[in-house]
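From the methods appendix. Each design record in this collection lists the tokenized structure first, followed by the designed amino acid sequence. Records were kept in a plain field format so they could be parsed without special tools. The example shown here is representative of the layout used throughout.

RECORD:
FOLD TOKENS (497 positions):
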């Protein structure tokens, strides 16, 4: 038997692009097979961030077309298809299960913020957080469903079922779907301990059992493409397609962060710090969430709605050169000497205060402020917000930072040495850049190999890391003082956690 097969076709559906790569039986990327397609979101001043679900399916299909063409004869060795998608998306479908009656509402959409506030007044949020691992926030399904029921009642009634994009993709390609525990936990409607949809929330929201997708675990694959796709992709016609998992969960696996000793720090479009923990032993503190990776493993962490999107917005607004060209100017500036304090909430706040209505603020501008100083201040502001997540994780797990290894992934982070140093200094811990630049998509490939029994445990997969970025205590003190100023501004303008 060829030690390199079966091959895994791994799909990654991100917030602005989709990718398809091929991995061998050891979890190594197959050279020459890397397809990527971009797509545009619908973004409005009211807070909408959505996309037509069928258009996104078409983009994913184009990505698969390209990957199979690049694979050539190797396509016949594909043994399974695995996928990760962004967490927290919601689309309503008609009775046939395949016609979208709403756009795909993404995690970044803040229109349900008032619905979330209304639910907080009505319900015991702390009890819901204990059961589901999620707060009542615009990102999650409860607020989205209440908002749709209130603002679009006819559409809400027309929806026969509610799905995440991973399930909708499988409905379109295979005619059926399974909602993984990973994806279900990201909705904010899953009772983590019972591994079932949360009954009190369903009753409050007027959602029936048959309107929520069937839950399964990662090995619960489906197969048998619909005729049009079977003709289009004969190599994939009869192979198993595994349920989609959340992109953050996949990034942890692809980074080798699958136990409490290794933590994943990701900055792509958004940002997060996550650690794999036993789900039965951990209760998330108010600033953090708890999602499932599978039936045996959970992720405790916190996420910001800002990351590379904030830096890209800064660059476009200030008409800066591309980040790689602006980097030397930003790197040359001294730490936090620009006099700026930024609340970076261009897409509302998630961790740690969960104020979806929060807006970005830049304080301390003067006539001599330069665009480079504003960009550096934005990087520092992200680091301060992530430091709050990091500190809460240390406290929740009663750990010392000397007993863990922080692994970094995501394009916005790995492409900016300045941001890496700011983070290492602010968190006061060594930072290890991940040299496997495709963390999420590699992660789902490894999970598929584990489910197939090809590898016994994802923890045994080798991960390649770069040299650590070491913290500088003197700069760290400067950043922590600036972080305190950010918190003071936050308390004045946004409010309590």
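DESIGN:
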């Amino acid at each position: 038997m060829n030690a390199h097969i079966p091959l895994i076709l791994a799909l990654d559906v991100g917030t602005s692009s989709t990718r398809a790569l091929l991995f061998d039986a050891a979890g190594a990327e197959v050279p020459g097979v890397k397809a990527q397609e971009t797509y545009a979101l619908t973004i409005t001043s009211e807070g909408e961030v959505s996309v037509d679900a069928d258009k996104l399916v078409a983009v994913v299909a184009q990505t698969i077309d390209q990957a199979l063409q690049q694979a050539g004869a190797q396509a016949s060795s594909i043994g399974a298809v695995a996928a990760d998608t962004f967490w927290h998306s919601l689309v309503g479908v008609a009775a046939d299960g395949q016609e979208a009656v709403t756009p795909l509402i993404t995690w970044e959409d803040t229109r349900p913020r008032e619905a979330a506030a209304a639910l907080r007044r009505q319900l015991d949020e702390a009890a819901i957080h204990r059961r589901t691992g999620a707060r009542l926030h615009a990102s999650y399904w409860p607020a989205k469903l209440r908002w749709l029921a209130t603002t679009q009642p006819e559409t809400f009634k027309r929806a026969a079922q509610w799905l995440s994009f991973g399930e909708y993709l499988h409905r379109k390609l295979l005619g059926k779907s399974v909602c993984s525990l990973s994806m279900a936990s990201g909705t904010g409607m899953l009772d983590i301990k019972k591994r079932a949809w949360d009954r009190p929330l369903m009753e409050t929201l007027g959602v029936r059992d048959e309107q929520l997708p069937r839950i399964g675990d990662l090995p619960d694959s489906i197969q048998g493409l619909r005729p049009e796709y079977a003709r289009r992709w004969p190599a994939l016609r009869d192979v198993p397609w595994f349920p989609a998992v959340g992109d953050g969960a996949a990034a942890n696996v692809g980074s080798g962060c699958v136990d409490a000793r290794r933590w994943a720090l990701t900055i792509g479009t958004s940002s997060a710090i996550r650690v794999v923990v036993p789900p039965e032993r951990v209760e998330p503190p108010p600033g953090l969430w708890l999602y499932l990776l599978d039936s045996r493993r959970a992720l405790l962490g916190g996420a910001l709605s800002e990351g590379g999107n904030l830096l890209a917005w800064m660059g476009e607004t200030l008409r800066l050169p591309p980040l790689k060209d602006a980097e030397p100017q930003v790197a040359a500036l001294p730490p936090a000497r620009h006099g700026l304090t930024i609340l970076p909430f261009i897409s509302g706040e998630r961790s740690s205060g969960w104020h979806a209505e929060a807006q970005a603020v830049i304080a301390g501008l003067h006539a001599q402020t330069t665009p480079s100083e504003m960009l550096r201040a934005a990087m520092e502001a992200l680091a301060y917000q992530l430091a709050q997540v990091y500190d809460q994780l240390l406290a929740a797990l009663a750990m010392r930072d000397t007993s863990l290894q922080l692994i970094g992934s995501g394009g916005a982070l790995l492409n900016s040495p300045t941001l890496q140093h700011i983070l290492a200094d602010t968190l006061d811990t060594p930072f290890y850049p991940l040299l496997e630049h495709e963390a999420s998509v590699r992660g789902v490939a490894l999970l598929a190999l584990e489910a197939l029994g090809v590898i016994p445990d994802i923890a045994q997969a080798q991960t390649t890391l770069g040299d650590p970025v070491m913290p500088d205590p003197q700069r760290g003190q400067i950043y922590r003082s600036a972080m305190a100023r950010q918190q003071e501004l936050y308390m004045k303008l946004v409010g309590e956690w």
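APPENDIX NOTE: The longest helix spans residues 371-397.
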